[in-house]
Request: fold
Amino acid sequence: MTNHIALFEPLFPANTGNIARTCAGTDTVLDLIKPLGFSVDDTHLKRAGLDYWDKVDVRYHENLPAFLATIPDQTQLYLVSKFAERDYTEPDYTVNDNDHYFLFGKETTGLPESFMRQNPEKCIRIPQDDSHIRALNLSNSAAIVIYEALRQQAFPQLERVHRYPHDKLK
Reply:
């Protein structure tokens, strides 16, 4: 089973770079759905995580239909949106051995509304106080959701105990 974070038409290189860093640290595939609002050679992207870029399985898709065509089991696709009714902690991310895909929308407009209306059973949300903010930061949201999936999966292949250099702290 592999987890995927998919970004629909991401605009801000810092968010994508931070998400790439999270993907590198969690052995998560990063799917980028074009058009991108930046070049992957962009200086901001490099600062935010390009030094980890070679450690990330990055897959580019020309558009949303092309991305969807790569998902063999659509039941394991989750659309992350603040407009969803179901919380991100509700699905069982340990179901079968299929990959799990977490699709996040563009920073300014989210996922296409018509697509979400066609797939309400796939929508999940991170609870937030809308009276104070429009939305959580994209890279924070991706980290919250992927770590919940990994928690449910017992953190496969991730180091559980960090060893300090030179065993200074015993």
